[in-house]
Amino acid sequence: MNSQHTSLLVDVDAVHRTVADRGLSLPPLIWDDACTSTNDELARVVRERADSGAAMAEFTIRGTDFQNAGHGRLGRTWTVPARRSLTWSILLTPPAGFSQWGWIPLIAGEAVHTAVAEAGVPAAIKWPNDVLTADGKKLCGILARVEPLASGPQIVLGMGLNTRLEPADLPRTDASSLAIETGVDGSEIDHEALLVSILSTLIPCYRELVDYGDEDFRDSRTARRVRDHMVTLGSKVRVEKPDGSDIVGIATGLDSGADLIIDDRVSLSAGDVHHLRPAASPTAPERNDR
C-alpha cells in the first residue's frame, strides 16, 4: 500500500491517460511503495487467477517504488535503495504456438534504450538482457520468465532501470544510473515519463513480433532497431555457457530466434556475455545475420 507520508513515483491514473493519448490501452496498473519482487508477485497472481479459471488481462503491470528482494538471471540478487530505480513487470500473453521467446528481452531492451535516449543518456543493448551506458556500465537489467499455464505459456517480463542512484548506492562498480549520467539531482528523474516511454515502444514492438508468426522476425523493423543498438554485435566476446564452459569469438549476428551467433558458426541461446573488445559503435552498419 502507499505510504501515508510519501506519494508514489508513478501515478497510475496519469499513466493511463498519457498512454491513451498515444493510442495504447492498458488494464489497471498495480503500483505500491514496496514489494519483494515484481516478477514474483505478478507471476503469483497470474497462477492464482489461472487456478480459479480466470485469465489476467495482457499488459497487466505490477510495479513498485522499492523492490526489496529482487533477483536477476541465474538466481542472482539485485537490490537497490528505495525510490531510486524504476522497477516493474508486465504480463505478455502470446498466441498458441508462439516460439520467439528470445526476442522478448531484446525488444524490452530496445524500449528501454529509446526511453533512456529521450532522457539524454546515450546507451546500448547488451545481449541477451541488459542496457548499458555508452562506456559499458549497466543501467538496466531485464528478466523474462515463462509461466506454463494450462491455457498456454504466458510471459512475465520484468525490468529494473537505475534512475536516481548516487555513486554510493550502486550495487556493483560496473553500474550507473540516469542521475549519474546526466549529472542532475535524482529527484529530477521522472519515473512516470520513463514508464510511459518504455510502454510506447515495447507494446507496438511486441505486437509486431506476434504478428510475424512463423516469418523470420529478423526482417522486421523492430529487429533492425535491436541490431542497430546492440553493442554486442561486432564485439569480441567471451560467453560463459550454462554448462560452465566458455566460448570466445566475434559476435557476428542474431539467428531467427534471437540466439547469438559467434564467428558465423555457433548459435547460443543463453549465457553470460563479457565484452573483450567492443564494437566501434552500437549504431554501426548491420552485419549479415543469415
The largest sheet is: 7 strands, mixed
Which strand order does the major sheet show?
1-2-3-7-6-5-4
Distance from N terminus to C terminus (CA atoms, Å) equals 50 Å
Count of discrete alpha- or pi-helical segments spanning 4 or more residues: 6
Mean pLDDT: 92
Set down the secondary structure blueprint.
Blueprint (H helix, E strand, L loop, with lengths): L11 H10 L7 E4 L5 H14 L9 E4 L20 E8 L10 H16 L4 E4 L3 E4 L4 E12 L2 E11 L15 H5 L8 H22 L8 H8 L7 E5 L5 E9 L5 E3 L3 E3 L3 E6 L13
Parallel strand pairs: 1-2
Antiparallel strand pairs: 2-3, 3-7, 4-5, 5-6, 6-7, 8-9, 8-12, 9-10, 10-11
Describe the 3D structure.
With 290 residues, the chain is an alpha+beta fold. It starts with 11 loop residues before the first helix and ends in a 13-residue tail after the last strand. The protein has a seven-stranded mixed sheet, with helices on both faces. The protein has a five-stranded antiparallel sheet with strand order 11-10-9-8-12, with no helix packed on it. The protein has six helices and twelve strands. The protein has helices at 12-21, 38-51, 103-118, 178-182, 191-212, 221-228, and strands spanning 29-32, 61-64, 85-92, 123-126, 130-133, 138-149, 152-162, 236-240, 246-254, 260-262, 266-268, 272-277. Strand 8 and strand 9 form a beta hairpin. Helix 3 runs antiparallel to helix 5.
